[in-house]
Design goal:
With 449 residues, the chain is mainly alpha-helical. It has 23 helices and 4 strands. The strands form 2 sheets. A two-stranded antiparallel ribbon has the order 1-4. Strands 2-3 form a two-stranded antiparallel sheet. Helix 7 runs parallel beside helix 9, helix 16 packs across helix 18 and helix 19 packs parallel to helix 21. The longest helix is centred in the last third of the chain and has 28 residues.
Length: 449
């Protein structure tokens, strides 16, 4: 007798849920396809920005769902705008910037497969974001994009913010407008970060300066990278009146070095950069001569020599002598090596054709050293000097390649402290003598070698 066949065993429900057919495996959302849309939405609501960023890389379907989720107004209000306003103290700034870096990475991954024109829509996520937070978001989002895509980003931002029109307004107006501060904060926070990759900084700086003529380029560069007053305004008059601290001219020097280091490309030439330097140092009036010297020192030996050599070829020997004296003094004050001013003097001497011209140049430098020392000694001895801050020329100015004196005196040094003015003046006088001694020692040592 043949036994009846046993009916096939039914799979247990738990096992059936774990086994997926080939068609199920090829489904777009996998296991998540079985979830109701409301439940899946609730899951996304409970994920952090970092979790969403990782989750968006699972599949195209999941990525599309997350893109739709983060594109809603409620999510952007809760996760983008409100997070910024929760920053109540300066201590929270680091945490806030890290959050917007994660936010930029999320949008970068979500839009990875989209064309550039569609990705640009996610750049304008909010108009009320802080500049620093938006800059962190934007830089993370476009990291790795090629120059053509970044160019489209610049055009898109310019159109959204009327950036070029606002820049034109400040370039055609008198210095000191409030809009200058807004333009500076936006460009420095969102686009131009001189402390980051030099290539990125050069790219954005070139796009900001390119539409304008040379004089306007110099003025815009001063607005973007020039010194600031204590109240946050651009230091137009400050740079003309008093010597500035080292840190106030660093950014401007970095920008000039960036442009000068890219002279091999067709965007910038050495002559253009030197012309910009000449224009900057007379904006809005001729700069204080010590600030000119400090800027040249910060720009490095190549730019400093090129500027001085250009003046030497144009016969401006007196101006070169006075700048060199201040460069030597700045090197002593800021603890720079005295060897490279000596090398610059040696290179400049080679530009003069005859021995008499070289002797005239050296004699002009020595006369400037003597005049400066005698003027300062007279001030120390008499105690008759004005209140100021540091060492600087008051009457001597540089303007359009000419050196002139407002009061008829060739060189006047003024030094005063807030308390012990005589001691400060004496200390400055000693510093000048030390700088002169070190310079001449290096000259003699070079000749002996």
């Amino acid at each position: 007798m043949v036994k009846p066949r046993r009916p096939p065993r039914k799979l247990q429900p738990s096992l059936a849920r774990r086994i997926m057919t080939r068609s199920q495996r090829s489904s777009q959302q996998g296991c998540f396809e079985q979830l109701p849309a409301e439940v899946f939405h609730v899951i996304l609501e409970h994920l952090t920005v970092t979790d969403l960023s990782v989750f968006s890389m699972v599949s195209k379907a999941v990525n599309a769902c997350i893109v739709n989720h983060v594109s809603t107004l409620s999510w952007r209000t809760r996760m983008v705008i409100q997070k910024l306003h929760h920053c109540t103290s300066p201590d929270d700034e680091h945490v806030t910037l890290a959050y917007y870096r994660s936010l930029g990475l999320l949008f970068k991954r979500c839009t990875l497969l989209l064309p550039t024109k569609d990705r640009l829509k996610f750049i304008s996520i909010s108009g009320c974001l802080g500049y620093a937070c938006y800059g962190m978001f934007l830089k993370t989002l476009i990291a790795g994009w090629d120059d053509l895509e970044c160019h489209r980003v610049f055009i898109f931002l310019s159109d959204c913010t009327n950036l070029l029109r606002r820049i034109e307004t400040i370039l055609t107006s008198r210095p000191g407008k409030l809009m200058e501060q807004h333009i500076r904060r936006f460009c420095r926070s969102v686009l131009l970060d001189l402390n980051q990759c030099a290539g990125d900084s050069l790219f954005w700086l070139t796009h900001l300066l390119r539409p304008w003529p040379m004089v306007s380029q110099a003025r815009l560069l001063f607005i973007l990278c020039g010194p600031l007053c204590t109240d946050g305004k651009i230091g137009w008059q400050q740079v003309c009146d008093v010597p500035l601290a080292q840190v106030q001219l660093w950014d401007l020097a970095k920008a000039l070095v960036l442009l000068y280091g890219n002279t091999d490309s067709r965007e910038w030439s050495a002559g253009n950069v030197l012309s910009i330097i000449e224009e900057i140092t007379v904006l809005p009036q001729p700069w204080h001569i010590e600030n000119v010297a400090r800027l040249l020192v910060f720009c490095g030996k190549n730019i400093c020599y090129s500027v001085l050599a250009n003046k030497a070829l144009n016969g401006r020997v007196l101006e070169i002598s006075q700048l060199l004296v201040l460069i030597i003094l700045v090197c002593e004050k800021d603890c720079y090596c005295m060897k490279w001013p000596v090398m610059i003097v040696k290179q400049l001497c080679s530009l003069f054709p005859g021995a008499s011209d070289k002797w005239s140049f050296i004699q002009s430098m020595e006369n400037t050293f003597s005049e400066v020392s005698m003027e300062m000694y007279a001030l120390v001895a008499s105690g008759n000097f004005l209140n100021g801050d540091g060492i600087y020329f008051t009457d001597l100015q540089i303007s359009s390649g000419k050196v002139y004196s407002n009061a008829g005196s060739d060189v006047i040094f003024v030094c005063a402290g807030n308390q012990n003015e005589n001691e400060d003046m004496l200390q400055s006088f000693c510093r000048l003598l030390k700088a002169s001694a070190l310079f001449h020692t290096e000259i003699v040592y070079m000749l002996l070698k």
